[in-house]
Amino acid sequence: MRHFPAVFFAALIAGAPGVASEAVAKAAAARVAGFIDTTLSTSSGQIRQFAFDGDAETFFASEKHPGAADHFTLVLDRPVSLKSVAVTTGRPGGADALRAGTLEVSADGKTFRELARFAEGAARAEGRGEAALAIRIRPGADLGHPLAIREVTVEADPPVEVFRYPVEIAVDVSDAPEMKEWAEKVARICERAYPMINEELKSPGFKPRNLINMRLRNDYRGVAATGGGRITGSVRFFKEHPDDVGAMVHETTHVVQAYRGRGNPGWLVEGVADYVRFFRYEPGKLRPLSRDRARYDGSYKVTAAFLAYLTEKYDREIVLKLNRLMREGQYREEAFQELTGKTLKDLGEEWRGSLKRIQRF
């Protein structure tokens, strides 16, 4: 039996968030999340969320020249008491800044009022504690150039969460234009799940993709598949199962996994993705499993349930640690014994014994 060096596992454990992650999670829960609603399409990977990621070096850029009716709006999950808001526009060299336009606020997401006007590419205003559900940037006139938004800074009570893992999922429904509304909705849901997925699967030095392409195809006969930063979904399946959004969250998890090499067992790769889906994104949706048919290497939801058992009984961060091993090409079966003190086979039998014989899946 091959054992990993003790120093490797010491580093693995030290590199995990540990108890501190609970404090981080609670702090994040106290913050208000949001999303970007805009009429402007994205240019060359300069995604929408770059405008609110807390990084002054990144920026959103529009593909086309904005018109007077266009807008770029940060919509919050619930109203906050606004203290101040500041917006800086323009690329690093100053090009494509908004020289004239308005910065607006809305308490209900429908009716907006002007907070400030842009001058020299920037706008700032005091909120004075007024309720804010949406903050909007409007050119106010047709521009002769694209629009670049460097950073939106919001001070509010409670605080507004920036996009810690900025991402944009670009949708291609050329095979089924009638699916556009559904696909755009699902893409936004997967974007909202992206921070959770990355927290569950983070590892030192890993930077997830910022741009993902999601395409629906008529000739794809499965449900969905992922390769690199591309997700392919079946038009037929999702027309018949429009509520199965979790399948696309599963595929988005594969994008974040970003495993390389061929040493990772497929059952564990799929099990990790379904663990994120069924025990983090939509907990409680997975039906009970049958002791007679369950195997730890059953893949997908079966392996997900096995991982959930190990998480609860042995190590709350075992999925995170296994993910790191697979991502770094260090996975071996012996990892389970190093992390739990028991062999994978013994863990599988123990888990099966915890299930009820009369249940089915």
How many domains, as an integer?
A: 3
CATH superfamily name of the largest domain? Galactose-binding domain-like
Provide mean pLDDT, rounded. 91
**Shape call:** elongated
Q: Please, how many helices?
A: 10
CATH architectural label of the largest domain: Sandwich
Global Rg: 23 Å
Q: Estimate what percentage of residues fall within beta strands.
A: 15-25%
Summarize the structure in words.
It is a single chain. With 361 residues, this protein is of the alpha+beta class. The chain folds into 3 domains: 6-20 and 264-354, no CATH class; 33-157, Galactose-binding domain-like (Jelly Rolls); 168-257, Rossmann fold (3-Layer(aba) Sandwich), CATH 3.40.50. The chain has 10 helices and 11 strands. The longest helix has 21 residues, at 180-200. The chain starts with 5 loop residues before the first helix and ends in a 7-residue tail after the last helix. The model is unreliable at 1-21 (pLDDT under 50).
Produce the secondary structure layout.
Layout: H1 6-15, H2 20-30, E1 34-38, E2 60-61, E3 72-89, E4 102-106, E5 112-117, E6 122-138, E7 148-157, E8 168-172, H3 180-200, E9 211-217, E10 224-227, E11 230-234, H4 235-240, H5 246-257, H6 266-281, H7 300-313, H8 318-327, H9 335-340, H10 344-354
Parallel strand pairs: 8-9, 9-11
Antiparallel strand pairs: 1-3, 2-7, 3-6, 3-7, 4-5, 4-6, 10-11
Which labels suit this protein?
Jelly Rolls, 361 residues, alpha+beta, 7-stranded antiparallel beta sheet
